[in-house]
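Today's session is about reading a structure prediction critically. Students often jump straight to the picture, but the first step is always the sequence itself: look for stretches that repeat, for charged clusters, for runs of hydrophobic residues. Only then move on to the predicted structure, which in these notes is written as discrete structure tokens rather than atom positions. Here is the chain we will use throughout the hour.
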Amino acid sequence: MIRTKFYRKVFELNGHPIIAKGLRRFAQSKVSKPFIGSFAKMYKLNMEEATRGLRDYGTLHDIFTRELKPGARPIPDAANAFVSPCDGYLSVVDHLTSESTFMVKGQNYTVEELLGSSEKAAPYAGGQVLIFYLSPTDYHRVHVPIDATVEEVYTLGKDAAPVNELGLKHGLRPLTRNYRLVSRFDVAGSPLAHVMVGALNVNSIVRTNEANVVHRGDPYGYFSFGSTVVLCVPKVTFSFNGKTGPVKMGEEIGTWLS
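Below is the predicted structure for this chain, in token form.
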């Protein structure tokens, strides 16, 4: 009970920098091992799909970045299937303006801010932005949504505001100010922006796949704690199937048209 209250309080205070810094160090240390069981219980982690048993994880960081058994997230075979790159809660912004503006929780963002320049944002005018919010319960590894060539990878930002109600509604603008790993994919001649956005406890985003050619469902990287993945797709290249809300990595969410 004490450990459960401890974790609940920690995540309530996710916007406090001292708590965040301390949690990050604690989660990566062996001192956190006794808390793994209560954490898994509190957030109802599905350990049946993990490659290791609960007792085999040495730190909270290890269990956050756990890998899944082969087949735990089936990947569609269809050549044009577009899948969720992660577990999370999906929101979709349709029909970006010519300035590629989109609104989240009452705050206006632009793809230019997200990707770092008007030149990089230009291909997505009139397209869509797909936003996947990860929670502590979710599987925290991020995958590739469709077969592609990796054209460019770079990092932006250095802030670490929480990507939660506090950060999204109170002017902190975490989606375009936080540290993030931006990858530009080429999918059959069309661009796709794949953005991993860090948060208060996750300003270490790890890219695990250095290949130039990647395939649907391939592992790509991970967060240490819950954060956000943003995908930008150009106009008339992607047909969304309309399902928002909870999604699993590998679940088909649309088709690539080009």
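Discussion point for the tutorial: The chain has two domains: 2-64, 81-256.
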